[in-house]
TrEMBL record:
The gene is NPHP4. One of its GO terms (cellular component) is non-motile cilium. It comes from the Eukaryota. This is Nephrocystin 4. GO terms for biological process: negative regulation of canonical Wnt signaling pathway. Signal peptide: none annotated. It comes from Homo sapiens.
Length: 262
């Protein structure tokens, strides 16, 4: 029973806001986002002086700006060591998701988190700032399609600040938001149609890494969890994407059970 409860709690998805869920249904769009590197002294010198063995990771969550509502499940990168003085922290981690909530107020919030040991040996985790990653453009039914690198600006505080009623959209221009100077996160975001054959294996609004174990998906090759392109595996039928075995960047989807003879 304890194992069942642990697995269940680790895989719970917070649903979108009820008002958002009542809107007309749209086809789900797949995305690939690569979090490349963190530039600048985002971890303050005071933290480095108080804590030892300081490491850093990123957390990504979905947020509905209209209803001030976090949903889905927070995804975390691997933990990376920090250096003194603070320098570039390289992640190069791809994450994948699909969503039918095609609206400019649906965003991904990226939080920078530092963790280290206090003098008594206990572990302390601190939020060092966050950024608002816009998934969809302001034009309806138009996801961001450019694949070139982008720079995400970071702000002081924690993502919980977005729940404050004074933070009206666009939050980036709100006077209560304080920019962290000379700090940014380099990333790419683009539609990823090669993920579509695995839609029935991945719940909507679930952020996953290519290195995560997903039931029904073959593990990725290599340490990055990302393939250069998504394509059909050699020898697989090129008929409906629900049939056969599909390979996509970071994961290979085995869509067995959708058709006979797969």
């Amino acid at each position: 029973m304890n194992d069942w409860h642990r697995i269940f709690t680790q895989n719970v998805l917070v649903p979108p806001h009820p008002q958002r869920a009542r809107q007309p249904w749209k086809e789900s769009t797949a995305f690939q986002c690569v979090l490349k590197w963190l530039d600048g002294p985002v971890i303050r010198q005071g933290v480095l002086e108080v804590l030892s063995e300081v490491e850093c990771h990123l957390r990504v969550s979905f947020f509905d700006v209209t209803y001030r509502h976090f949903f889905g499940r927070t995804w975390k990168t691997t933990v990376k060591p920090t250096k003194r003085p603070p320098s570039r922290i390289v992640f190069n981690e791809p994450l994948y998701f699909h969503t039918s909530l095609n609206h400019p107020h649906i965003v991904a919030v990226v939080e920078v988190v530092a963790e280290g040991k206090k003098r008594d040996g206990s572990l302390q985790t601190l939020s060092c700032g966050f950024g608002i990653l816009r998934i969809f453009s302001n034009q309806p039914d138009s996801p961001i399609s450019a694949s070139q690198d982008k720079r995400l600006r970071l702000y002081h505080g924690t993502p919980r600040a977005l729940l404050h009623p004074l933070l009206q959209d666009p939050a980036e221009q709100n006077r209560h938001m304080t920019l962290i100077e000379n700090c940014s996160l380099q990333y790419t975001l683009k539609p990823h149609p090669a993920l579509e054959p695995a839609f029935h294996l991945l719940p909507e609004n679930l952020l996953v890494s290519g290195l995560q174990q997903i039931p029904g998906l073959l593990p990725a090759h290599g340490e990055s969890g990302m393939w250069p392109t998504g394509r059909w595996c050699p020898g697989d039928p090129g008929a409906a994407p629900a049939c056969g075995r599909a390979q996509w960047s970071g994961l290979r989807a085995e869509a067995a059970g959708r058709c006979t003879g797969a």
